[in-house]
Amino acid sequence: MADSSRPNRKPRVRKTAPTVREKAQAAQSKVGSAKPKKFRRLARATTKPFRVVKIPSNPVTRFLGRIGRIIGKVLGWLVPRYFVNSWREVRLVTWPGRKETWRLTLAVVIFAIVFGAMVAGVDKVIDILFRKLVLK
To answer: Which position among 47, 97, 116, 136 has the lowest Cβ density within 10 Å, counted as fewest Cβ atoms?
Structure first.
C-alpha cells in the first residue's frame, strides 16, 4: 500500500563531469575560429611557392612520386607509432596562457616551501626525540 501512495518518479541521472579536453573545445568554440598557430602560418608561407608550381605529369614525375610514397611508407614503418600518436596528442593540448602559467608556478613554489617546512619540522622533532630517548 505504501508503494501506491508514492508518485512515480524517474530515477535521477547524473551528468558526468566534462574532461579538460571537452572544456577546452567548448571554450574554443565560443571564441569562434581561432587564429592559425604560428607554425602553421609559417608552413603555409614557406610552401606557397611550391603550391603554385604545376608539375607536369610525365613518366619521370610519376616514377618520383611512387618513390616518394614508398619512402614515406618505409619511414612510417621505421618511426614507432608511439611517437606519431604522442605528437598528435601534443598538438591537441590547449596550453595555458602567461597569466595562468605564473599563477600555477606560484602555487607550486608555495606548496614546495610549505611541504619542505613541514618535513624539516617533523625531522627536527624526531631528531630531538631520538637524542633524548635513544642516545640518553
So the answer is: 136
